[in-house]
Amino acid sequence: MPANRCPNPNCEYFNRALPNNAKVCPWCSTPLGNVITPTPTRPVSPQPTPPQPTPPQPTPPQANPPQPVQPPRPVVNPPTYQPPVDYSTEYQQRVPPYVPPVQPAYTPPPPRLPLLKLIHTTGREFQWSGEVGYIGRRSQSMTVPPEIDLTGLPNEGIISRRHARVYWDWSQNAYMIVDMSTNGIYLNNTPLNPGVQYRLLNGDSLQFGQDNLVRFTAYVM
Predict the structure, then answer these.
(1) Percentage of the chain exceeding pLDDT 70
(2) DSSP calls for 127-181
(3) Other C-beta atoms within 10 Å of 124: how many?
(4) CB of 149 closer than 8 Å to CB of 136
(5) What is the DSSP track for 79-119?
(6) Residues in contact with 198: Cβ distance below 8 Å, sequence separation at least 6, in sequence order
């Protein structure tokens, strides 16, 4: 015996089996006069979804390379018009006459002074050439030794630190000697007055002090 079913498709009991003695649907009160036999449906197997192709990725636009900056062109001013020069009215500067350079006056070199040589009785020689110098012996208190240093001779204690001063006299063209000592000087066995200049000649005999202990022969060469 077919079962009663609700024919209302909007009802929850639609096409559901109801009691045979029911006249209306207990949910929607639809009369159950019609019997709806459900048609069995075949289950539909799901069709496999074909893989979707991956759409191509859009290529990013290529950045334009920077264009080289062109340096600004220099502005060249057009040459201005220069009127021709009228040399007939322009002042002509005079060229000074040539003056030859003045040659400096020739100054001859000073003449070479002769050499003064003193030879001791022991054969030791002392030489000097100059305008002003001293004969003596050096000591620790002297910063500059004499030009003719007699240090080391026998009986050198008779010789003073500055025993005599010698210099060249241009007027007499000769060497002069002045006694500055304590023990005195003898020129050709004649004592000299202190502070007085005497001329030295070639072959003169010089004696420092008495007793003929320190004796020289002078030569002017």
Answers:
(1) 80
(2) EE-SSEEEEE---TT-SS--SEE-TTSTTGGGS-TT-EEEEEETTTTEEEEEE--
(3) 13
(4) yes
(5) PPP-PPP-TTTSPPPPPPPP-PPPPPPP-PPPPPPPPEEEE
(6) 176, 177, 178, 187, 192
Residues 17, 36: contact at Cβ < 8 Å? no
Nearest to 199 by CA among 188, 184, 209: 188
Model confidence at 38: pLDDT above 60: no
What is the residue type of 64? N
Contact 179, 194 (CB under 8 A): yes
Sequence ranges of the domains in the chain: 1-38, 116-220
pTM of the predicted model as reported, rounded to 2 decimal places: 0.52
According to the model, what pLDDT value does residue 63 have?
63
- Reported as a single tens digit per residue, the pLDDT across 45-81 is 666 666 676 767 766 666 666 777 777 777 777 777 7
Our CA angle for 84, 85, 87, nearest 5°, is 140
For residue 185, the surrounding DSSP H or E stretch is strand 185-187
β-partners of residue 197 are: 178
CATH architecture of the domain 116-220 equals Sandwich (2.60)
Rounded Cα distance, 9 and 30, in Å: 11
82: tokens are: 């220069």
CA distance 165 to 29: 170
What is the rounded average pLDDT of the residues 174-187?
96
